[in-house]
Amino acid sequence: MTGRVGDRGRTIGGNRAGRSEPVVVATPHGLLRGLRRDGVDVHRRVPYAAPPVGRLRFAAPAPPASWTGIRQAASASTRAIQPLPPPVRAARLVGPRGRYGEDCLTVDVVAPAGSAADTAAGRPGRPVLVWVHGGAYRTGGAADYDGAPLARLGDLVVVTVNYRLGAFGFLDVADAIGLDPADSRFPGNVGVRDVLAALAWVRAAIAAFGGDPARVTVAGESAGAGLVTSLLLSPAARGLFAGVIAQSGAPTMNTEREDAAAAAREFLLALGAGPENAARVLGTAPPSRVLAAMRRVNALRPDGLPFRPWFDGDLLPVSAAAARSAPTLAVPLLIGTNRDEHRLFSVLRQAVVPRTRERIAVMLVAEQGAPRASAILRSYPDDAAGLSDLGTHGVFTMPAVHLADRHSGVAPTYRYRFDFGTSRLGLGAFHAIDLMFVFDSPRVLGRALFGSPAPARDALADRVKRHWVQFVRTGSPGGDWPGGDWPRYDTPRRATRLLDVADSVADDPEGDRRRVWHGVEVPVP
After folding, report:
1. Among 248, 264, 245, 259, which Cα is nearest to 320's?
2. Residue spans of alpha helices (H) in 130-172
3. Distance CA 442, CA 376 (A)
4. 23 — phi, psi (to 5°)?
5. Cis-peptide into 112, omega within 30 deg
6. Which domain covers residue 381, as residue numbers?
């Protein structure tokens, strides 16, 4: 199997050096010329919607225009407007960053070589994996993820999606300034609408690349997992996918409508706009000015997510309480978290979620009252290990467990916990470490976190990829290879696969603390 963690100097979003040749596919909107290299056909910057510029900046995604001639699809895709990329030294760890711009509603498509010709000749299409990136709803892009190893291993078509981020994607203008909900300039939750539009494009166009529109799995990590699990609650998503993979995210990452409106008012104030001129200023402000206002709002809301999906009563349920009782779409779900998620934020001081015991305590008291908050806090020692478990369980683990509990009564559900970690900086199995085992990790990052290559680590990466591919192909991550069995998750057993140097299956591995958190879902502030 190809594509081991940190091997061969490959970077996320790049291909191994090798001879390439042009390859053309005929899509419903026109001809695209991509590249064939190392056994895969790659088409980048494929539009799934019209550029969200001018009057479309905050509007729902519009259908893409058709074109004549052959459109070039070989260069790296444009990431959505977002905060500045990391310094050059840090960028070496995460791979090349590429371009940023508002013309970002595109996908990258990677398919086994010749897939398009196969379907054109009448042969069955291949299963499709649609990947929605994370990044706290404010950073990231499709080009950060190289779908080639998964496409080669699983004979899959892999689609990675760009969507609007930050205030461009998650600004509740209508509620902030009292607009008519039917005002098409600001329908709200346009980042969610972008992902739905990308999935609709896949349904209509993926056969042109060799994919089967009836066998689509949508997957995401962190904010991406928050988005794809929210789609489980959205009637608008019905029929767009046949399975979901959620890595370290749940609908508790969404916020209430009132909070979204408050954040939007703070943003408009920072932008220098009021109700009387908000529409004009929002439509004409240069991206740099929008980013500056976003930074001011982030400073007002440390350890939180000011720009994110909200429960709107339209695409999503009307509130978090309604979401907890809403039916989920009846498709298989693979969901999990990492054992030490919170350490990315507490150790590296990333201001995304509450980072201290005191901040978590304030959040718990505000949501649950002092008696219940005290009962939860008593279950975690007041030390570094206790903080790691408390933050991990409150923000990531328990929301995933609660969703798995509910969904397991609707459709096949499978749960994992990623336990393999690094000893560097005491990070352990931190938030996003699993990405380096599903996709290829850059060599520099692999060395920084793990040191020299290790066969056991590479073997784990191979197993993770095989399980993910098996889920996309069959709706179950279990395989018929030695040690590949993966039992379904249900209550009260709660069978969970622990991914580590040696994998195992444990029943209800956080049982004592899960019982303390029963009925408690605390949204990320």
Report:
1. 259
2. 148-154, 166-169
3. 39
4. -140, 135
5. no
6. 7-516
Alpha helices in 408-495 (DSSP H): 435-438, 443-450, 455-474
174's tokens = 């209508």
Q: How far is CA 505 from CA 263, 402, 432, 495, in A?
A: 42, 19, 22, 7
Task: Give the pTM.
Answer: 0.94
Catalytic residue among 29, 43, 77, 222: 222
- b/e 315-343 (16+ beta carbons within 10 angstroms → b): bbbebbeebbebebbebbbbbbbbbbbbb
pLDDT at residue 345, rounded to an integer: 93
Predicted local confidence at residue 446, as pLDDT: 74
At 98 the pLDDT is 63
Alpha-carbon span 237 to 326, nearest angstrom: 14
Backbone dihedral angles phi then psi of residue 54, each to the nearest 5 degrees: 60, -130
**Residue 506 in tokens:** 């444990």
Of 43, 221, 230, 341, which residue is the catalytic one?
341
- CB contact set of 20 (below 8 Å; sequence gap of 6+): 35, 36, 37
Q: Which pLDDT belongs to residue 296?
A: 96
Residue 40 φ/ψ region, left for φ over 0, alpha for ψ in the -120 to 50 degree band, beta for the rest: beta
Picking from 132, 144, 314, 316, the residue whose alpha carbon sits closest to that of residue 241 is 132
Tokens of 110: 């990677």
Residues in the chain, pLDDT under 50:
1-16, 86-96
Phi, psi angles (nearest 5°) of residue 447 = -65, -40
Handedness of CA 286, 276, 316, 513 (dihedral sign): positive
CB within 8 A of 279, min separation 6: which ones? 173, 185, 186
φ, ψ of residue 254 to 5 degrees: the values are -75, 170
CATH code of the domain in which 371 resides: 3.40.50.1820
Q: Which of 29, 43, 402, 431 is catalytic?
A: 431
Q: Are 138 and 295 in contact (CB under 8 A)?
A: no
222 as an active site residue: the answer is yes
- CA 372 remoteness from chain centre: 31
Please check whether residue 525 lies inside any domain of the structure: no
Q: 267 near 166, Cβ under 8 Å?
A: no
pLDDT at 86: 47
Is position 365 within any domain?
A: yes
110: left (phi over 0), alpha (psi -120 to 50) or beta: beta
Tell me which residue of 125, 105, 132 sits closest to 208, measured CA to CA: 125
**1 domain residue, yes or no:** no
Can you tell me the distance from the alpha carbon of 476 to that of 470, in angstroms, rounded to the nearest whole number? 6
Domain-embedded: residue 521:
no
State how many domains the chain has: 1
pLDDT at 523: 81
Q: Which residues of 251-282 are buried (b: 16+ CB within 10 A; e: fewer)?
A: bbbbbbbebbbbbbbbbbebbebeeeebbebb
**Structural contact between residues 216 and 199, judged by C-beta atoms closer than 8 angstroms:** yes
Q: Alpha-carbon distance 266 to 408, whole Å?
A: 40
